[in-house]
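Researcher: Structure for this, please.
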Amino acid sequence: MNFIDLFAGAGGLSEGFMRQGYEPVAHIEMNNYAAQTLRTRAVYYCLKDAGNLEIYRNYLRKDITRDQLYSSVDPNLLNTIINREISNKNIDDIFRLIDEGLTNRGITEIDVLIGGPPCQAYSLVGRARDPYNKQYDPRNFLYKQYVRFLDEYKPKMFVFENVPGIRTAGKGKLFEDVKRIMDKAGYDIEAQVLDASDFGVLQKRKRVILIGWVKGTNYFYPKFERLELGYKVSDIFEDLPSLIPGETKDYNYTKKPNSYLKKFGIRQTNDILVQNICRPHNERDRSIYKIAIELWNKGEIRLKYTDLPEDLRTHKNLTSFLDRFKVVGKNISQSHTVVAHIAKDGHHYIHPDINQLRSISVREAARLQSFPDNFFFEGPRTAIFTQIGNAVPPLMAESIALKIKKILEAETNLPRQIELFSN
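Model: Predicted structure, token format:
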């Protein structure tokens, strides 16, 4: 089976589909760093299929350059990542590039379309900071571009992912319009709010997952079973070396992988620890982190900004966003939601170890999102944090991909089953 990924970001959603054996036809992503990450991941899968992963590991060790890595695969593979903004100006060119790839590979139909437009315009926090509640944000209408791909390629099913706030944006009228034009495009649809923590992700992360299928088929919205795990957030930290602010410690783990890391494929045999880098912090912030960690570790109490001594306060706002310093609790089953703001300062994602007094590292954030350790993000640290914060957790995506695959396979096998029964 195959798929096209729109607004692909770093590829968290497509990672889940590729793990389930889907073949990517195209990824469309406007951000240069995220598109580079998609290319590197595409090379990983190509080398994995060919049994040549040592080439990829050489890249992670910095023994070869990115150009040398890319030269190890067919150049046409890299062309499947289309680094363009999805807009009226570009869409015909994007269609042309996708069509060329379909023709070259002999693909005549698309099984699944996946993706979610940038969600900042729909987020409740974003609207709270905008006096017009984001009603004039052009990103509000990117769902119309999504539907143009439905009209163009007629996939059997599609997955449209976004934040829960999309349901209330524009007093609910926007989401009604989303469903109306998808219906007009020829699809039955259903939307549910799913939580990533129900899929093995050690993070509370609610998302609207809208799934559509061609009218007149026997397809349906899959039923997802909640996983009862018993794991703790500390399971993502315990095999990683301690860091001081601004430090990087790559290549070597401190322990063997625990059952959580192995069960969910976060860390695999022969993995190399990479991108275990944290940002620098000044002494004022580290003093605040110490207070926040002490409060949390002693009684799971969240620090309020107004609780800080005056000499540690740098903001005059004492009435809103009082939880701007927040510890990633280690002895609970799910952390608070990782969002793109982690790229700004890290104050909302303080490492729980009081001996380190820092925010979480790139690799720790990626693990909270359930990215495997062999997933390499391209770009500077800030750009990587943004990619991680915006991503769909791969474990959640994989469950969705598996359910959809079973639905499509059941329909594909139905005529053969009828024939055998008749005989």
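Researcher: Any notable elements?
Model: The two ends are 29 Å apart (CA to CA). The first helix runs from residue 12 to 19.
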